[in-house]
């Protein structure tokens, strides 16, 4: 099996129909993964969710990457209960308990093994979409375990910063630069949603949450109160009451495709793939493969679509 250039370029276009997808998420990291996961489940008109993978993370909300992954695993189950989607519990998997030790050694996990096996049921004409909104360790591990899956998947990753940003010291990327380098160079069709400078425009305010979400259902109430708790410390510091929930934009790549090849919520272009470097910069090797670079998000259009689906 060899993916042709035509198939590769076709899979870089935003999908226009209903597609199969998995979500790789550090769900307990902050507050935006919860919105993204819920939006994905509620977008069944465009997405057939196949599995959820818990990703590692390490910050104030965890004691180690392994603890972050475990907390994320439990938070996925918490959200599935609020969503009333018990059927997905059996396809929710624990991911890596640590980051890649180098660019050749995978970290085996239930999530990585499931992605390898699950991808075997797809091909370049009908790919599996891998939406990743955390450190991309699980996905990189699966590719290292079985490089052939690169021709069966499309990777959509929220990670790194915009190319015009002075550095790429972004949480999802700097935690596991080795994994990012594996994914950028593996040869799979790749969509990048950069954080600062692009999808950082997707923010919410207290009025947005209270007027449009609160009181609609248990899920919405949880999302609102959880976000308000997180943002309360910002307000105490005298900062404006707004919060980025950028992880939602990765799911939007699957929900906003049009038959004319355009995207309802995102603007994008094809560029030559850069290489993430260990010094928090990009390098630009000559003759790099093409990839999708998202450079703008229509905040209001995406917000309205998400609110409509979550508040049902």
What does this structure look like?
It contains eleven helices and twelve strands. With 312 residues, the protein is of the alpha/beta class. It has a single domain (5-202, 245-310), classed as Alpha-Beta Complex (Inosine-uridine Nucleoside N-ribohydrolase, Chain A). Strands 3-2-1-4-5-6-12-9 form an eight-stranded mixed beta sheet, with helices on both faces. The protein has a two-stranded antiparallel ribbon with strand order 7-8. The chain has a two-stranded antiparallel sheet with strand order 10-11. Helix 2 crosses helix 3 (65-83), helix 2 (32-42) packs parallel to helix 10 and helix 5 (137-145) crosses helix 7. The chain is globular and about 50 Å long. The mean pLDDT is 95.
Task: Itemize the secondary structure elements and their pairings.
Elements lengths: L4 H6 L8 E7 L6 H11 L4 E8 L10 H19 L8 E2 L16 H10 L8 E5 L4 H9 L7 E6 L12 H4 L2 H9 L4 E4 L9 E3 H7 L5 H19 L5 E3 L3 H8 L10 E7 L2 E2 L5 E2 L6 E8 L1 H12 L2
Parallel strand pairs: 1-2, 1-4, 2-3, 4-5, 5-6, 6-12
Antiparallel strand pairs: 7-8, 9-12, 10-11
* CATH architecture heading: Alpha-Beta Complex
CATH superfamily: Ribonucleoside hydrolase-like
Total helical segments: 11
Count of beta strands = 12
Instruction: Tell me roughly what share of residues is in helical segments.
Output: 25-40%
Give start-end ranges of low-pLDDT stretches. none
The radius of gyration computed from the alpha-carbon positions, rounded to a whole number of angstroms, is: 18 Å
